[in-house]
Specification:
This protein is an alpha+beta fold. The protein has 21 helices and 44 strands. Helix 12 (508-525) runs parallel beside helix 14 (557-571). The termini are far apart.
Length: 802
Amino acid sequence: MSKFNLRPWHSIRAVIQWQRRCRKAGKQSAAKILILSALALIVVLGTVFSFILGEPNAQGNPTRAEQSPSFAIADATSTKLVRKPAQSQVLYRDIYLRQQPNRIIFGNDKLKLEFDRATGQWLILAADGIAGNLIAAADIAQNIDFQIDGNWAIAQHGAKLLHYETAIDRFRKGVTLNLSFGVVPRPHQTDSPYEFELTVAYTLFPDRGSLARSATLRRNFSSARASAKQVRKLEGFRFGLPGVGIENPDLCVVDVPGPFLPQTYVAPQTPYKNLVNQSIQLHRAPDAGLGILTMTNKQRQMTLASWMETSGEVAYNSTIRGDGRKLSFWHENLRAYRLPEQYTVTSDIHHVELTTQALPAALAQYRQMLARTLPLATNTPQWAREMVLLEVYPPYFPEGFKGITKKLSFYRNIGFNTIYLMPHWVGGYAPIDLYQVEPSYGTSDDLRELVRTAHSLGMKVLFDMVIHGFDPKSSVPQERPDLFVRDEQGNLARHREWGSISTDWASPAYQQYMVDLALHDLKTYNIDGYRVDAAGYKGASWDAKIPYPAYRSGSASPELMQRMLSAMQAVKPETVLLSEIFGPVFYSVSNLVHDNQTEAGQFLLDRMAAGKVNAQHYKAHIANVLSALPAGANRVYFTRNHDTSWFYHFNGYTPRLMAMEAVHALFGIPEVFAGDPKYSPNPDDNPDVYEFYRRLFLTRQQFPELVRGEVLLREIECDNPWVFTGLRRSNGQLTLVAISFSGDREAANLTLSINTSTTQARQKIQLIDPIQGDNIEFARTGDAMNSVRIKLKPFQILMGRL
């Protein structure tokens, strides 16, 4: 047996005994003892490392371990290990590593990962109590890749496993297996045979079904000087879960919480098999959406969830991709850098969570991540939470600003307490001059009078704010070129979606320009804040002269918004920001965030009319989003805004649309559009529309829990899919709301999972119709008196305290 296969403590004891014998016999000089002791120490260290790392790998290179004392002890004596493979090496608590001739097995009590020892290919992701593989064995490029100069490097060139190692987190929270690959061979260079070294980290945590993945890319030195001068464009990383499924895919459903476009809509609880022939790229996260992909085996009550953690610095795309038989989950991490030689970039973290419960448990994990990395802004005044918002478009009013001012008292009587004024400056959503009032709307004095009148009526006023860029006809790009993004040739760059001259959000000069504008509007008009338009991340800048990474120019909108809000609140503490864009990153830098895409409401109404979705689908959408966001997030809902007709279509103020508006008013912060002269109908066309809103908003005033109370949607079940049900709870008050989305009379059995003394004490409940004024009594049923059967007229709203 080789001495490197001896137990380390046997080697240490032998060395100590040998030194003692030498000293006792007096046969060794001090110098000789020192030399021989050093040699003995080398033997001991070799033995220890051999024991820790196991046998050499398939290439004959021993794996590398973290060479810290904490790793060497690894708490092995106190570890309780269940189901670990035979002859496994305990790394920390229940986390183990086993090296077989052709496999690397890395796992804990909840998860097990297996890799090909020769290639590093990820072969198996297995879970405790679940039969089979959660993913399909696939090429390395299906699991991890990086994009260089527009090409996916591993897909194009392959990857060679160089070495692997394990490391314990210094805070002892988990253990990481690092696999390092060489990518893009350079056969004639002996110093660095690969242009890139990619190290993929797989981290497990004790007693948890959680996997965290990340990648670190280094561009190696080249002795070829022509290559050394070339700066490569790293456009991001890609993480994949190929062929993902929990046992029998026919028992699985897919949920993708968050906003959607008509072409990307995935109804809650969509059967797995319905998606296998589709490829759906969802809203970019965390700016435009949530980025969560989930799959639940309803029979096993187990959910797999996948997302990325970027702390809002960069965005990522989430995609569901079907191959006709199975689904794959992909996340594209848009961490873009100019990459010279000897430069290293680390990706953001890809999370895979496996919960032994239904979807809400997985969403709770996502919520915890947000609370840690993107906590809610703490500077939100109370009035923002009580907002009832009216969006006004100056061209709709024949007298512009004066016309709006004349109608403010009417709007106040309806119940609106906040006006959101669409662009008032020259150029509108393609700004030409953000300081100059559009003459066709009126004068600066007219605008000041509008704001003053609103304030006298107890209303707040938000201006619109466009930050994506300036119209090419504007003089600002020529006067202030330091505010804008440039391309590689030094030319002013265009916004990829709007075609404007794109502003550089990371530029200190641009940030100060916008702070100065905000303070000007505050001083000149005494506004109460902004609705910020199109703050979604807009891509990298490859200008070689910028002093920050390429991704920053297009992803620093949260930093910009935070600076603007801080500057305004230093002067007027009650000011707020409302983000048009829907992702969770904006909750950390603004006070309110819209819920969904401009097309979403009308799209769902069209689908309901066709019988393809129902009220329960919309309830599940709202419930899933609220479960993922931090508690207290202020979500603003609308069915129609100015973009609905501009970019989609609007079918009018139908009874079903008004039912949806009731959901928004009674379970969130409602927003209503006052009208567009080019696209009718408008609320003014039918007096019943504003009367409906008036009665709805009056109900909010009569039941304060509908404004300030906790939203409880999962705590009440309804057996009729066309009836939206929920609860609001505040200060001991529990209020039930039921809204029919059906054109027929409907009956519904409601069951509450909440126990309160008042709920149990009353044999009957009184529900009112806030629109028609009806008062209806229903009897409770069930052993705990937690059930009630109700009947509703077409599109009726019923509500009452329990």
